[in-house]
Design goal:
29% strand; 415 residues; 9-stranded mixed β-sheet; alpha+beta; 21 strands; FAD/NAD(P)-binding domain
Length: 415
């Protein structure tokens, strides 16, 4: 059991990835202290963050194994089909969950849409119920010393915490990563993601839309219906960075009119039910995932374009692999700060993270190229994939997070 001042692992950052990692470690009898500078309960307010996330199939299996199945079943909306098109052109790629039913006929959704606020609430409740996890918040780390025999964190309020290994889960601007001298490959996109939520007259039937316009992707993602019965979807609309602020200021009616225009009446009358917030978009990837008694997970290690909704899922896959590597090390009697464990984690994760990061970057750039010849080429490519079942299955497996060498948690097992 974790004590007030010592645990096996010190997790810097108590966001979605940091708290999930603590629960995954606890499921393998590894104790964790989470240090978070903000008050986690403040993040549960409806006004804090109206974003939603697409939880890929493999990530959903892990969350269920960690006791969060009720959240997915009661507040999540399964994605039954994904449709991808070049703007309003009729040529569409359709990825259907039903096409990959198992031998018994069971169908696993392509993903599950969940409000970030609901996921935070469920994670926090689970963390507070788990004896091997202690959340220390709100407080900042004034100093983090990583020595040959362990990690010592001196908090801003004077308390001292001890662990064998520190994990940086403190986001894309990770001060822990920067203090360790780990460099980034990074760039900014000339665009921003306009994020909001809307109600619409017609049901979405669990269909996620990804429409590519010259200004950027326009994604509409199915959400669970509102309590009053209205149908609801999450909007992630990529626009030029210069236009993002103006689009956010359109007001609910103006923005609803622009959304309806791009949908071509598909969902009937549209009403914005949340403020539109613009998020600048960028790419980054750490040159290495560790240093002495330190490893990076989630956005501290990598950040990608949201074109395929894979950002959080990469972080969850980091969690599953790191938990497995550390659990294997613990069973073998190794010091959890042994650099061999950090190297194994990095070897396991870097290929998937790199492939996904550069694939999404390439897609964002390809679909951002103007001109009719390029549009025709893109439509030809979409048609080619639509009529090539093996290619569709491969893309679907990548989107689900079920491709490659999966640790037990991503198979829904505790190991």
């Amino acid at each position: 059991m974790t004590s007030d001042s010592a645990a096996d692992i010190l997790i810097v950052g108590g966001g979605l990835v940091g708290q999930t990692l603590a629960l995954a470690l606890a499921a393998h009898d590894i104790s964790a202290l989470i240090v978070e500078r903000a008050d986690p309960r403040a993040h549960l307010a409806e006004s804090f963050d109206g974003r939603a996330s697409a939880i890929a199939s493999a990530s959903a299996r892990m969350l269920r194994a960690l006791g969060l199945g009720d959240l997915l079943d009661e507040e999540g909306c399964p994605i039954a089909r994904i449709e991808v098109a070049e703007g309003s052109h009729p040529e569409i790629i359709r990825f259907d969950a039903a096409a990959s039913a198992d031998a018994g006929g069971a169908v696993e959704p392509l993903g599950i849409m969940v409000e970030n606020r609901a996921l935070r609430r469920a994670l926090l409740a689970r963390v507070e119920q788990t004896p091997l996890v202690r959340l220390v918040a709100p407080v900042a780390i004034a100093r983090l010393d990583r020595g040959p025999s362990g990690v010592t964190a001196t908090l801003a309020d004077g308390r001292t915490l001890f662990a064998a290994l520190a994990v940086a889960a403190d986001g894309r601007r990770s001060s822990t990563r920067e203090a360790a001298g780990i460099r980034l490959a990074h760039w900014s996109y000339p665009s921003a993601a306009l994020v909001s939520m809307l109600a619409h007259a017609r049901p979405h039937h669990g269909v996620a839309l990804e429409l590519f316009y010259p200004s950027g992707p326009f994604a509409l993602l199915p959400m669970r219906d509102l309590a009053d019965g209205r149908h609801r979807s999450a909007l992630v609309w990529t626009v030029g960075r210069d236009a993002a602020e103006g689009a956010a200021r359109l007001g609910p009616r103006g923005l609803a009119a622009e959304v309806a225009k791009r949908l071509g009446g598909r969902l009937g009358a549209v009403e914005m039910i949340a403020p539109a917030v613009a998020w600048p978009l960028g790419f980054h990837h750490a040159e290495r995932y560790g240093a002495q008694r330190l490893v990076l997970v989630g956005d501290a290690a990598h950040g990608i374009h949201p074109i395929a909704g894979q950002g959080l899922n990469l972080g969850f896959r980091d969690v599953a692999v790191l938990a497995e590597v550390l659990a294997t090390g613990a069973r073998s009697g190794l010091d959890l700060g042994d650099p061999a464990l950090a190297r194994r984690y990095e070897r396991w994760r870097r290929a998937d993270n790199s492939l996904t990061a550069f694939a999404t970057d390439a897609l964002a750039r390809l679909f951002g190229l103007p001109g009719r010849p390029v549009e025709a080429l893109r439509r030809f490519g979409l048609a080619l994939v639509e009529h090539a079942p093996p290619a569709k299955r491969a893309f679907a497996a990548i989107a689900r997070g079920t491709a490659g060498d999966l640790p037990p948690l991503l198979r829904g097992e505790l190991g």
